[in-house]
Design brief:
The complex is a heterodimer.
Chain A lengths: L1 H21 L4 E6 L14 H7 L8 E3 L5 E3 L2 E6 L5 E6 L13 H12 L14 E8 L2 E6 L6 H4 L26 E7 L3 E6 L12 E6 L3 H9 L5 E2 L8 H5 L4 E16 L9 H10 L2 H8 L5 E2 L22 H10 L6 E7 L3 H15 L3 E7 L2 H10 L5 E6 L20 H11 L4 H18 L2 E14 L2 E2 L16 E2 L2
Parallel strand pairs in A: 1-10, 14-15, 14-16
Antiparallel strand pairs in A: 2-3, 4-5, 5-7, 6-7, 8-9, 9-10, 11-17, 12-16, 12-17, 13-17, 18-19
Chain B lengths: L1 H28 L4 H6 L5 H11 L5 H13 L13 H36 L4 H15 L2 H15 L15 H35 L2 H8 L4 H30 L2 H6 L5 H10 L3 H29 L1 H6 L1
Classes of the chains: A alpha+beta, B mainly alpha.
Keywords (chain B): Cell membrane, Membrane, Transmembrane, Transmembrane helix, Transport
Protein name (chain B): Peptide/nickel transport system permease protein
InterPro entries (chain B): BPD_transp_1_N (IPR045621), MetI-like (IPR000515), MetI-like_sf (IPR035906)
């Protein structure tokens, strides 16, 4: 009798495993260009950290969706007081961290207090500056009181820098990240790959993938064969270069051109003569043909912008016609500035292809109006210290990839060195406005001021070129924030 | 002999000390703030200050040098700024890729080069010599990253025999790890083999013109025996010298190949560390490479003595 049960059990097992083999795949290898320096999203600015961990391993009170909206996450719901200064979050219960400890209101208080503490090394500490107190009402309720109403507070709670960590494990997150997400961290072979696997007992919607590997492929030339050979099945931000057409013609692969929050601009040092003159900046804007720049710098895929806002944003206003390319007009502007003979200046270009290639085209275009640019290629470390911190530059090209960052033009001491009290007033107002319609109105006015003043020449929105296996579903097409959210990804059967 | 080794060791240590000063001060001059690089452009000033303090970057330069150099003596290379783990751990993780890769490539290149060199020399001026020397000319001229891409397209994309790149780690088993190293090793070995074969050939030709070779032949010793026993042994000194140089190159200079195959080796660690201004990692790896070159050179010098008994007697 016992013998029979054993045989039956063995047959059942064999059947179960053979049907398992026929079901859809549950593993995925994702290619990424940059390796994260460490794995703690609350202690570094590198996009590579969020691209592995956001939404997969770590979760916040709220989260940002594929469309860029704010959705509830660990907070199941919230109420806002009438003065807009206090938020009461109702938390999900039964949530556990991957090390087995319970997630409660205490963890929320710990995480927010840690991010804004004096010795905090949070890269976006400014996001938490408005928080006055964080109180634990009961284990499933947290009340956050702000010093003043903050328009983007719920959004800010959904970014990678604001994910919830546990006091028991926070110090080790750089090496061994412990979050509440649907995937748990398995291993990190430095320089090679980071492995995640499905977390058992996840509180939210179950995920389809069992095992995920992020493989680090820094060389653009190596990423193409990795995709073609099937070693890597998805490359959310593929450095395709000239191989785009080759990949698009391959029926096994799907190439998706999406949008990002990366406004690519020709930044101008607004305090340095002659760029302190509005006419000079207007002349530069009128001399540039955006289409030629886009063709050279982004394979023709970037969307032109006329101010500092992504075309994917609901508040976007099309201002690309503010200064259409017109060499004669540009020369008139120069004459009005008393520089009809042109002048010499420098342009410092950081390593990304959009900057190096775009810079050459812009230098050629400005030569038409007698502005001779000396091209100086710089490394990122150099760019950050010389251009960004010391403001030792005339012109530079860079993509500002943070979402909702139009306020950078109002920040004192920011490297544009742009100052317009009218603009600053708008941003101040924006900061304390919750109402969507009102926010849109203010943002439109702010965009118009920037388009007119040319604190930088607004070039194009950086495209996101995603390449993945044609049978893979649920990858993000756009990148409203820098993340590789795998929670909805699955293989078609 | 012992005095000779001792003298060489002392010179080696002095070189290391000088190198440590040069490496440390050179990297300190390079512009760029590691803290700013980690926290990005939206970081607040106090967050930057806190991080600099955590990294120990607020200490005076000389103090940091002394702390670092004294740590080296106990193999403590400090902590990486970006990864915040001990540098020695990072190096250990990478050397298990770089060292086997260098050894495999070196063995491959020697196994190809010596027979080809000997074969060419023994058929000097005949078609076989012309063809094989033409092939080595090609090997010297072809850039190894291009050759690597060619190998990837043939063996990984088209034939799908080996992975296109990456390294599964030795924990995944010896065979998967070795297959991951085969293509990069071939890409590294062939150009090296071409150089080595040319050196072997010319060195051997020189020896074959010597009187004692004619004497040996006149005594009736078979040509094959003269070639492999008498001539090759005497022709080996320049070959061993080149081998030593090649090993140092293979250990450190494989960065392009490591990038093409995205292997987590030492070269990529240094490259990454330089762009991220993780200076303490750069310093650690460079010191290690300096030490490796010194050791390899010492071994090469000692091997001269093995090859040539006259050198043994003189010292």
């Amino acid at each position: 009798m016992q013998m029979w049960t054993k045989i039956l059990a063995a047959t059942a097992l064999a059947l179960a495993s053979s049907t398992g083999a026929m079901a859809a795949r549950t593993d995925l290898v994702v290619g990424v260009v940059l390796e994260p320096p460490h794995l703690d999203p609350t202690a570094g600015a590198a996009a590579a950290i969020d691209e592995v961990l956001y939404a997969n391993v770590f979760e916040g009170l709220t989260r940002i969706s594929a469309q860029g909206e704010v959705l509830p996450d660990l907070a199941e719901s919230w109420t806002v007081s009438d003065d807009g200064k206090s938020y009461t979050f109702k938390l999900h219960t039964g949530v556990k961290f991957h090390d087995g400890t319970d997630f409660t209101a205490d963890d929320v208080k710990f995480s927010l207090d840690r991010a804004r503490a004096e010795g905090s090394t949070n890269a976006q500490k400014g996001l938490f500056a408005a928080i006055d107190t964080v109180e634990v009402v009961d284990p499933a309720t947290v009340k956050v009181t702000l010093k003043n109403p903050q328009g983007l507070f719920l959004y800010n709670m959904g970014v990678g820098d604001a994910v919830i960590v546990a006091p028991e494990s926070a110090d080790g997150n750089k090496e061994k990240p412990i979050g509440t997400g649907p995937f748990k961290f398995d291993s990190w072979a430095k320089g090679s790959s980071i492995k995640l696997s499905k977390a058992q007992g996840y509180w939210g919607d179950p995920v389809a993938l069992e095992k995920v590997e992020f493989r680090i492929i820094p060389d653009a030339a190596a990423s193409i064969p990795a995709l073609l050979s099937g070693d890597v099945q998805a490359f959310p931000n593929a450095p395709v270069g000239d191989a785009l057409a080759q990949l698009q013609s391959d029926p096994r692969l799907k190439v998706v051109i999406g949008s990002t929050e990366g406004e690519t601009v020709l930044s101008i040092n607004n305090k340095k003569p002659p760029f302190d003159k509005l006419e000079v900046r207007q002349a530069i804007a009128s001399a540039i043909d955006r289409k030629a720049v886009i063709d050279a710098a982004s394979n023709g895929l970037g969307q032109p912008i006329g101010s500092f806002m992504s075309p994917a944003n609901p508040a976007y206003v099309d201002l690309t016609g503010t200064y259409p390319q017109d060499v004669a007009k540009a020369k008139e502007y120069l004459k009005a500035a008393g520089l009809e003979n042109g002048f010499n200046a420098t342009i410092k270009l950081p390593p990304p292809a959009y900057a190096r290639l775009g810079g050459e085209v812009i230098a050629a275009q400005l030569r038409e109006i007698g502005v001779n640019l000396e091209i100086i290629p710089v490394e990122w470390a150099d760019w950050l210290s010389k251009v960004f911190t010391d403001k030792d530059y005339d012109l530079t090209i860079v993509s500002h990839t943070e979402p909702n960052d139009i306020d950078i033009f109002s920040r004192p001491g920011y490297y544009f060195q742009y100052e317009n009290p009218e603009f600053n007033k708008l941003i101040e107002e924006l900061g304390v406005t919750n109402d969507d319609a009102k926010r849109k109105e203010i943002l439109a006015a702010a965009q118009k001021i920037l388009a007119h003043d040319v604190p930088a020449v607004f070039l194009f929105e950086l495209p996101k070129i995603g390449v993945w296996d044609a049978k893979l579903e649920g990858m993000w097409e756009n990148a409203p924030i820098q993340a590789t959210d795998l929670t909805k990804v699955k293989w078609a059967e | 002999m012992t005095a000779y080794i001792l003298k060489r060791l002392l010179i080696g240590i002095a070189t290391l000390v000088v190198a440590s000063v040069v490496v440390f001060s050179m990297l300190e001059i390079v512009p760029g703030d590691p803290a700013r690089l980690m926290l990005g452009i939206n970081a607040t000033d106090d967050a930057l200050q806190a991080l600099r303090q955590q990294m120990g970057l607020d200490q005076p330069l000389v103090w940091r040098y002394l702390e670092w150099a004294s740590g080296l003596l106990t193999l403590d290379f400090g902590r990486s700024y970006t990864y915040s783990v001990p540098v020695i751990d990072l190096i250990a993780e990478r050397i298990v890729v770089s060292l086997p890769l260098a050894v495999i490539a070196l063995v491959m290149s020697t196994a190809i080069a010596i027979p080809v060199g000997v074969f060419s020399a023994s058929r000097r001026g005949r078609p076989a010599d012309t063809i094989s020397m033409g092939a080595t000319q090609f090997g010297v001229a072809v850039p190894n990253f291009w050759f690597a891409l060619l190998l990837i397209y043939i063996f990984a994309v088209w034939l799908r025999l080996v992975p296109a790149g990456g390294f599964p780690g030795w924990s995944a088993g010896v065979w998967p790890a070795l297959t991951a190293l085969i293509l990069p090793a071939v890409a590294l070995a062939l150009p090296q083999a071409a150089i080595l074969a040319r050196v072997t050939r010319s060195s051997l030709l020189e020896v074959l013109g010597e009187d004692y070779i004619r004497t040996a032949r006149a005594k009736g010793i078979p040509y094959r025996h003269v070639l492999w026993r008498h001539a090759l042994r005497n022709a080996l000194i320049p070959v061993v010298t080149i081998l030593g140089l090649q090993f140092a190159f293979l250990l450190a200079g494989t960065i392009i190949i490591e990038n093409v195959f995205y292997l987590p080796g030492l070269g990529r660690l240094v490259f990454q560390a330089i762009t991220q201004r993780d200076l303490i990692v750069v310093e650690g790896v460079v010191m290690l490479l300096v030490a490796a070159v010194i050791v390899v050179n010492l071994l090469v010098d000692l091997s001269y003595a093995l090859v040539d008994p006259r050198l043994r007697a003189n010292r």
